[in-house]
Every structure is written in structure tokens, then in C-alpha cells.
Design a protein that fits this description.
heterodimer; A: 489 residues; alpha/beta; 6-stranded mixed β-sheet; 16 helices; 39% helix; B: 265 residues; Aldehyde Dehydrogenase, Chain A, domain 1; 3-stranded antiparallel β-sheet
Chain lengths: 489, 265
């Protein structure tokens, strides 16, 4: 628990009282096997690993490390499950997905607490963002299951078969929903591999599938580290790969699939520019900047990690931003007032630390608000770099942490040039009160999502995905369905 | 009295100009000396395409459609020349009609592929197709003109800039086509055509970091290696009909962009 710290506001000294969400609503089992063919099975590998809370380093549960034999069994179960699932009337498939959506809503609090425990994200984010959106994704895609011929007229859509899905640790259950919901809606079966550090909500999702009485083998969940994911992609029994994660691993998957004719979609890294013009609504922009880079500790592929500020308002903007950062609360993810939770893992903390050190070594100026870090667990304070050159690593590489690099521009054309000057192209933000400028900028930013006078908004009806090395394929909307279908027309 | 005809020199088409290969090499095809493009030519072509991308993709859809329609007009005017180096008049007519068919898509793509999205919140949200960027096209050997036209038009119509590797066995049709393009008002560099060895050029384009997508419809040999090279910068890898027309030939070469804006007073 974070110590109560005194604050001053208008001369009055006051403090935040702890407001912890109860964790009693979650009871993890001691050990989770693999979810294969509708059953929980012990791993043939005989290997297990521990999933721990990044906020306290407390072990939460033991989880199976799926080996090659386990992957093979899961793919086999998914093949059998595919025969059943794809043979159902589409309207019946739809109803299963509606059931899952409802169960996620019913168990939202439990799953939100589990998500924050296992991944370290603030409860207000898992409660207000991850869970509602995960349920919404199932609800949205449920409705598509029996309407696919309207989504793709004259193309005679058909499922692909067994979808291998590998998801990251930043939005574990939400990424599961982004992957599983469209796959099932389109009639595919699934082998899902959650991230090594955040497997628990996926394993609870197995129980959601049981409660929904989903036909065995439609969804299979195998846990493990990167070697499990690599084994899954190598397996010759899969018909589709969907991956969300780093660009480095995405490239390795694309290489592995070369010549195999397996359709794949990749949602990879980003280095989004959040572009603030002098005529913006500054207070709103400050909120958007903070949301853009400190939401989920910056563990967001579309995070607004590069702030491009029109030169004329740099100083007032930085003044307000520093003031706002001093109000952010870092600490216990289960505290309802927490804005910044724990860094997801030791490895990620090391990477953030290394990149921040490189920023200082390259000559950028670091600002961090006074911020006490808990003694146990993995933490990093909200950080702002100024005096950043475009060539610096902190301006080019994805940090995936609460670290903002501030640069300036004078003209809209310069803002576009700088914004597009990375290998990535996932998202971008534009802040201006001038409508024509928003649309002019939006047309020139080489990014799959442009947030104008807002940031980090997501919706199952809204296609999401990258340009350039941020990957290909879209998730969400009619466009997202296409990744899970073959066409005869 | 007989007159000695003036024969044509078959060169590359890069940046709107007709250079020889910088390597000075040629190869014999259809009884002609044809430029044998080198690695450097391929890189120059990519640079020209990148340079033209902003202008070509920045034209209005209506204008782009008219430029492509004008290409059909120019092909019609050169149809005898084209027929002499392609598979006859039928292939030329099919090719011209295909250009017209694709030209008509330019100002309809956004409605056919994009849309407004009903999100759960006070936001206006829409999705539109945009060109992927620089596209490398490995055209099929046969049919030499229709195959090339069928692969480059789906890329060009949305505003992509293209570097195409022509039919290796019958490359003359591609250069004849380039001469129609050169007078079609398409900005120089929007389409670049290389003649030469696919085995030499395809790996360079597949591995080039400033190429956003590669169309392997006409690729042969070690295609898996080309796909591996394409992974180096997460290229979109496309395969389509060697000769045919469909909206779904256009779609793999666009990116869907989604824009959000709050709704409020």
C-alpha cells in the first residue's frame, strides 16, 4: 500500500485515503493446466511456471508451460473443434458469442481485479476500459456471425479453419477478445497463447467458455513463453496466424510463414506522434497528452510517445503538463485512485530504464515529478524528455513505458514530416480547434488510426491497425472480419 | 524508292524518363536489345516512386480516374504498336478495357471500402482507404501486356506509386505501354518499369526497405525467399489474378485509416 502523502491545495493540507478494491472477488487456483478440447489438461511437457503480481512480486498461481507435444494436441483439438463449430448454424454461433459477452459483463468485476493483480494495471482502467470493451467486442461480433454475406456481398465468405492467436501482456483479456471474438464469429476455431506474464485472465476465460457451454475445441488456450508461441506458428496444422506484439517478433513470424501460404495479420509496435497546435484547447490537449502516454503505464502500442508541440506554445504547455503530472497517483493497482500502476515485468522495467538512460546520455533533458515508488514490485515514474532530437533512440524506438519525448515544430508541413519520420505507423493525434487543419493533417499522417482532439479511443466497430512496420490487417469493424475469412468470389 | 525505317531503342522507364540501364547491359528479347536493369536501376526506380507518391496520391480521386482513363485513350491510339509486341489485338483490347474499368474505381473506392463506424461514445468515426505507398509489382510473363496492366492498375488507382518488373520473356509490350503512360499526364515516377531478370530484380525489391508492398503474382523460383525478404520491413505480400479485374485486387494494396473526432457543443 502506498503511504498516505500530504498534499497542499489552496493552502489546505489534505491527503488521499487508500481506496482499495477488494480482491476477495477473485480466487485463483493454485495451478492452471492447459485448456484443450474443452478440458483442463496437465501439460505433457511436465513444466510449470509462476505468474506473479508485478506490483508486489507475490506469486498468484502456477501455470503450465506448453511444449511441442502440448501445442500439437491443442492444434488437433482445435481441428476437431473446427468441424463442430463451423458446422453450426451461424445464428447458433452468434448466440454463443452473445452468451460470452453477457458472462463477461456479469463477471466483469472479478475479471477486472484479476487483470490488475496479474498485470499491474490500475483497477480503474481494467474496470472501465478493458472489461467493458472486451464484452463489447464479443457482443459486436456476435451480431456478425450470421450476417457475413452482407459484410462481403457476392464473395461467399467461409472460415479459414484453425486460427493460431498470440497476444501481448498489455491488455490481456481485451486482446483475447479482439482475437477470439472475430475468429469465432467467422466460424474458425482458436488456439490462443496469452503472454507469459499475464496468463491468468485467459485461463479464467476458459471458465467463461465452459459457462457458455461453448462446443469443446472451439477455443483452446495454451500458456507458455515465447517458445510456445514459436512452436504454435511453426505447426503445420494451423490455417491462420493473428499476432499482436513487438515488431521484432512480428517480423520473425512473417519470416517463419514465408512460403507456407498461411494468411496472417500482425498488429505490431508504434511510436505515435501526438501533435499539438497553438490554437488547441490547451487543457483538453493536456488531458489527451497524459492519457496518450501514461494510460496503462505507457504499455500501449498506439501510445502517444512523441509529443510534437508547436514552438509558440512550448513553455506554457510544459508548465501545465508538469503541473498535471504532479497530480498523478502511482501505486497499488487495486487502489481506485491509482493513475499509474506497476510496470508489467522486471524485463520491461529494465528495457524502459535502459532507454531512459540512453535519452539522458544522448543529451535530452529529463523531468519526473516528485513521486515515491513502492519498495516491492516494478515501478517507473511518469517521465518527460525535452530537448529531444529526432535521431535519439527515445524518439525512434518504442519504449512501451510512461516516457514522453517532446519535440517542436513550426509549420503543419514540418509536423507531418516529423510525425511520419519513423518506421512505425500505428496511430497519431492532432490537437487544434481548426477543423480544416484536422482533416488536412489526418490525410497526411501515415498511420492507421488518427485521433483528433482525443486519444486512445477504442471500439469494436472501429477498425484498428497499422501502416508500415506497425503491421498489417485490421481488427474491429467489417474490416477486421476479413482477416478470418476466405472468399470464393 | 525504299526507305530505311527508324527503329526503336527499348529502354527502362524511371521517373518519367527513358534511361538505359546504368549498368550498360542489355539482353535479347523478341529480337530486340532490351535494357537489362540492375540493382542500381531498381533502387533508382524505388526512389523515383517514393518521390512521386505524394503527388500521385495527393491528386483528387476524380483527377486520378481521368488520368488513368487518358492512359486508355493513349493505348487506343497506339493499339497497333501494342498489338505488334503483345499477344495480338485481342489482348490489347482487353488491356485497354481493363484500364477503363479500373479508372472508374478511383472515386468509388472510399465508398466501397470505407465507411462510418457507429462507436459507443460521442465521437464521429470514419474509415477510408489510402494507398499503401510504394508497391513493387512482379508482373507475369504471360500475357505480357494484359498481365502487366492487370497488376499495376489495381495499385495505381488508389494512388500507390509502382515499380513494375515486366514480363521477362516478352518485355517489349511493357516499354510500349510506358510510352503511352508518358503522355497520359501521370506524374513522372508514379509508375516505373524495369525490364530484365526477375531472379535478379525481385529479391532487391522484396528486400528494399522503402517498398511498402510487393505483388508476387508473376514471381517464380524461390518465392518463399522473396517472402522472407519482404518480412524485413513488414511488407504487404500480394498475389492476385494474372489477368482479371476485381475490386478485391485493389483492396490488398490500400491501408484503412480510421479517424476519430469528439462530438459536442
Amino acid at each position: 500500500m502506498t503511504d498516505i502523502e500530504p498534499r497542499t491545495d489552496g493552502g489546505l493540507e489534505w491527503t488521499y485515503a487508500p481506496a482499495p478494491e477488494s480482491r476477495a472477488i477473485v480466487s485463483f487456483e493454485e495451478r492452471y493446466g492447459l485448456y484443450v478440447g474443452g478440458e483442463t489438461v496437465e501439460p505433457r511437457s511436465g513444466e510449470w511456471f509462476t505468474s506473479a503480481s508485478p506490483a508486489t512480486e507475490e506469486p498468484l498461481a502456477e501455470v503450465a508451460q506448453a511444449g511441442p507435444e502440448d501445442v500439437d494436441l491443442a492444434v488437433g483439438a482445435a481441428r476437431a473443434g473446427y468441424e463442430t463449430w463451423s458446422g453450426l448454424r451461424p445464428s447458433e454461433r452468434a448466440k454463443y458469442l452473445f452468451r460470452i459477452a453477457r458472462i463477461l459483463q456479469e463477471r466483469a468485476r472479478e475479471l477486472a481485479v484479476a487483470e490488475s493483480l496479474d498485470g499491474g494495471k490500475p483497477i480503474k482502467e481494467s474496470r472501465d476500459v478493458d472489461l467493458p470493451l472486451a464484452a463489447a467486442h464479443f457482443f459486436y461480433h456476435a451480431g456478425w456471425a450470421d450476417k457475413l454475406e452482407y459484410a462481403f456481398p457476392n464473395r461467399r465468405p467461409r472460415p479459414l479453419g484453425v486460427a493460431a492467436q498470440i497476444i501481448p501482456w498489455n491488455f490481456p483479456l481485451l486482446m483475447l477478445a479482439w482475437k477470439v471474438a472475430p475468429a469465432l464469429a467467422c466460424g474458425n476455431s482458436v488456439v490462443l497463447k496469452p503472454a507469459e506474464t499475464t496468463p491468468l485472465t485467459a485461463l479464467l476465460f476458459a471458465d467463461v467458455c465452459r459457462q457458455a457451454e461453448l462446443p469443446p475445441g472451439a477455443v483452446n488456450i495454451i500458456t507458455g513463453d515465447g517458445s510456445t508461441g514459436a512452436e504454435l506458428v511453426r505447426h503445420t496444422g494451423i490455417d491462420k496466424v493473428a499476432f499482436t506484439g513487438s515488431t521484432e517478433v512480428g517480423k520473425a513470424i512473417q519470416r517463419e510463414l514465408a512460403g507456407r501460404g498461411v494468411p496472417h495479420t500482425l498488429e505490431l509496435g508504434g511510436k505515435a506522434a501526438n501533435i499539438v497546435f497553438e490554437d488547441c484547447a490547451l487543457d483538453q490537449a493536456i488531458e489527451g497528452i497524459v492519457n496518450g502516454i501514461y494510460f496503462n503505464q505507457g504499455h500501449v502500442c498506439c501510445a502517444g510517445s512523441r509529443l510534437l508541440v508547436q514552438e509558440s506554445i512550448l513553455e506554457p504547455l510544459l508548465g501545465k503538463l508538469r503541473g498535471r503530472l504532479s497530480t498523478l497517483r502511482l501505486g497499488d493497482p487495486l487502489d481506485k485512485n491509482t493513475d499509474i500502476g506497476a510496470i508489467n515485468s522486471r524485463a520491461q522495467l529494465d528495457r524502459i530504464t535502459e532507454l531512459v538512460e540512453s535519452g539522458q546520455a544522448e543529451g535530452a533533458e529529463l523531468y519526473q515529478p516528485a513521486c515515491e515508488l513502492p519498495e516491492r514490485g516494478y515501478w517507473f515514474p511518469p517521465t518527460v524528455f525535452t530537448n529531444v532530437a529526432q535521431s535519439f533512440r527515445i524518439a525512434q524506438e518504442e519504449i512501451f513505458g510512461p516516457v514522453l519525448s517532446v519535440m517542436t515544430f513550426r509549420t503543419p508541413a514540418e509536423a507531418v514530416d516529423k510525425a511520419n519520420n519513423t518506421a512505425y505507423g500505428l496511430s497519431a493525434g492532432v490537437w487544434t480547434e481548426k477543423g480544416s487543419r484536422i482533416l488536412w493533417m489526418a490525410a497526411r499522417l501515415r498511420a492507421g488510426v488518427v485521433w483528433a482532439n482525443t486519444f486512445n479511443r477504442f471500439d469494436p466497430a472501429s477498425p484498428f491497425g497499422g501502416y508500415k512496420e506497425s503491421g498489417f490487417g485490421r481488427e474491429g469493424g467489417r474490416h477486421g472480419l476479413e482477416a478470418y475469412l476466405g472468399f470464393e468470389g | 524508292m525504299s526507305r530505311l525505317p527508324v527503329k526503336k531503342t527499348y529502354k527502362l522507364f524511371i521517373g518519367g524518363a527513358f534511361p538505359r540501364s546504368e549498368s550498360g547491359r542489355t539482353f535479347l528479347a523478341d529480337g530486340q536489345n532490351v535494357a537489362l536493369a540492375s540493382r542500381k536501376d531498381a533502387r533508382d526506380a524505388v526512389r523515383a516512386a517514393r518521390g512521386a507518391f505524394a503527388r500521385w496520391s495527393g491528386t483528387t480521386a476524380y483527377n486520378r480516374g481521368q488520368v488513368l482513363y487518358r492512359l486508355a485513350e493513349r493505348m487506343e491510339a497506339r493499339s497497333s504498336d501494342l498489338a505488334a509486341v503483345a499477344g495480338g489485338r485481342d489482348e490489347v483490347e482487353r488491356s485497354i478495357d481493363r484500364v477503363v474499368w479500373y479508372a472508374g474505381w478511383a472515386d468509388k473506392l472510399a465508398q466501397a471500402l470505407g465507411g462510418a463506424n457507429a462507436v459507443a461514445g460521442p465521437y464521429f468515426n470514419f474509415t477510408i482507404p489510402e494507398p499503401t505507398g510504394v508497391v513493387a509489382t512482379i508482373a507475369p510473363d504471360e500475357p505480357p501486356l494484359e498481365g502487366l496492366v492487370s497488376r499495376i492498375l489495381p495499385a495505381l488507382v488508389s494512388g500507390n506509386a509502382v515499380v513494375a518488373v515486366a514480363s521477362e520473356t516478352s518485355p517489349l509490350a511493357a516499354i510500349e505501354l510506358a510510352e503511352a503512360i508518358a503522355t497520359s499526364d501521370m506524374p513522372g515516377g508514379a509508375l516505373n518499369i524495369l525490364t530484365g531478370r526477375r531472379s535478379e530484380l525481385a529479391p532487391i525489391l522484396a528486400g528494399h526497405a522503402d517498398v511498402n508492398a510487393i505483388d508476387l503474382t508473376g514471381a517464380n523460383g524461390d518465392v518463399a525467399e522473396l517472402e522472407r525478404l519482404a518480412a524485413g520491413n513488414v511488407k504487404r505480400v500480394v498475389r492476385g489474378m494474372p489477368a482479371g479485374e476485381s475490386l478485391w485486387e485493389i483492396e490488398p494494396l490500400v491501408e484503412m485509416k480510421t479517424v476519430w473526432h469528439p462530438v459536442g457543443v
